[in-house]
Write a structure and sequence with these properties.
This is Amidohydrolase. It holds the Pfam family Amidohydro_2. It comes from Streptomyces pseudogriseolus (Streptomyces gancidicus). By secondary structure, the chain is of the alpha/beta class. The protein is about 50% helix and about 10% strand. It has a single domain, classed as Metal-dependent hydrolases (TIM Barrel), CATH 3.20.20.140. The longest helix is centred in the C-terminal third of the chain and has 24 residues, at about 315-340. The protein is globular, with a radius of gyration of 21 Å.
Amino acid sequence: MIDPPSLVDQYCHGVLRTELGLGTFEAQLARTEGPPAPGTTLFDTQTGFAVRRWCPPLLGLEPHCAPSRYLARRRELGTMEAGRRLLRGSGITAYLVDTGLPDDLTDPGELARAGQAEAHEIVRLEQLAEQVADTSGTVESFLANLAESVHGAAAHAVAFTSVAGLRHGLALAPEPPGAGEVRGAAGRWLAARGAGDRLTDPVLLRHLLWIAVASGLPLQLHAGLGAPGARVDRTDPVLLTDFVRATAGLGTDLVLLHGYPYHRHAAHLAGLFPHVYADCGAALVRTGARAATVLAEVLELAPFGKILFSSGARGLPELHVVGAHLFREALARVLGAWVSEGAWSLADAQRVATMIASGNAGRVYGVG
């Protein structure tokens, strides 16, 4: 049996603290721009079927029980107890948590206690810039405070993450913008900005990326299909090639997140450039029973030391469970087939499984 001893979830979010009904649970289960079609349910998705397969036994129910029965049991236990049972049943030993979402989600410390695991913070660059803008009265103070905030965050975070690709597209000019260009963009953004407005200016997005690169921390870049409203026509990681090439040799690792359905492109870039890594986790949650096929496609192209597991979970502890179980099952199926065919030895398969599950993340982020 090929089964890594521990899992480092190299990209996820906290979980909701509130009780959920059927509609609100489904909204978190499949992040769409609206409700399901009349008379249907979002449990009838690959993710929904995976939740019904792996989560009910952790709450004392039979696999594949009806959604209504599962949610009733969840309410019976209460949000906190159900969350603890689910997170502790995932097998995840360390969480790297993006804290840059507006939702009322548990912070890394809460997630660690609930899951009896380690947790470390990932700082989202765009949210950091928006917070700085809220307290900066002039362009000069904004730019100075921004540089200071990124430097301060680098002292406690394990990585930075950027959603520039989802907000503007990945076809950003690769070189750092000039000082005058940055001041002009900051002035326009601050003057036009209303309360809660998100940062979408391409010049400032590039400026943030290069400040992060200078910090030396790993930089995670969102690619592939994102949240509703993302620029899905411009999130193919191949569009990052010029930026990737420009950052080679600078000492900062780039991690391409959520590459699906462009996961082969992300794997290809990880194979070409020594400082580029590919995430393989969130695609498995989306594809469910087809997860082994997707993982095999990533393994075709990326060196095994350049692939990282994540759940990409947000809101529901069930998504942490599903991410972990689908990854373990897909890895065992793919590598086990190669062992049974004689292409790999069992020892090599177990070694590679451990690398992808935790070893690579330990090396990139400095976590155990």
